[in-house]
Amino acid sequence: QRAEEISAATGFVISYRNNGLVWQTPYTGGALPEPARYRMRQVSPRTVVGFFRGNTLIRHSLSEGELSFIVPRSESAERGLRLWMLFVLTALSFILGVAYFLIRRTLKPLHRMKSAMEALHAGRLDYRIPQHGAVEFRELAEAFNTMTIRVRDMLQSKERLLLDVSHELRSPIARMKVALAMMPEDAQTRSLHEDLREMETMVTTILASARLQHTADTLKKTSVSLSGLVAEAIETLRDRAPGVRIAPSADMLIRLDKDKIRTVIQNIVENAIKYSNAESAPVTVSWEVDAAQVTLTVEDNGIGIPAGDLPRIFEPFFRVDDSRSRLSGGFGLGLSLARTIVEAHGGTIHASSAADGTRVSIVLPR
Q1: Peptide bond preceding 242: is omega within 30 degrees of 0, i.e. cis?
Q2: Largest distance between two CA atoms of the chain
């Protein structure tokens, strides 16, 4: 009677076993799990507790027999737990959504700054950051915009000065050439002729680079055989040590300005020869073709380019050896002109180098 009263008051199922005798209080909630399915844990020398899918089993050993209490899973409690978990998940999702929105809004000016830095790195000096948001970000945007305007004006002034000087040098160079032609030829006049030739080459290169800097309108594109163009470009350089070889590559027609791309190939191959040892392997010219572009590669086995100088080799007047000697090289304009011509064609040019050689790749759209 006492077990049935406790069972009625608590909802527990109470059972007793002893020598084959099994007695249990009534339970109308359905089938209970078998005792073997519970995960049992010893909590005292005579008591173990087990759990299975929300049901709890407490088994206590008596001097005679065994007394068990089963706490069945409560449907109402489980329903309440599900509702509570749903509420917690909904609240958490709302909090995370609001936090994400606020973080995105807070970091938006930083994303604009990142885009501005990438544009500046790409040479887009006309890029401006919108000046709105928090006071600190507005001030930062204003400082950045002012900086890019000053940098742009400074570079434009430098380019304008260089072009003006180069253009104005043509007339005195022409007059000096006429005067030298009327002088008796000797070692001194021959040296002056060579100096004037170098000056004229430099001026012509600067002006040609400026004409191609911002427009491709000056390009005279025709369909050209790639293998024929490469062979023509290296013809005068084949006999210079260590020599030049063309790797077997499939020929194709590509539309480009033949004279200008020939100049690009000649400049790059000439550089490769200049910085190669006479006993090293020949400079190799090869190309690969896919559906969208042609990649022309010039590879040498020379002295290589220091890693710190590699990003600057396409800048005007940059020389790796900081020398202007006739014996060590030209004016540092060949690769700059090559980049200008390639970019005017809508392509790219880049270089990689190691201690055992340099690789220059020209990528042109088909």
Answers
A1: yes
A2: 141
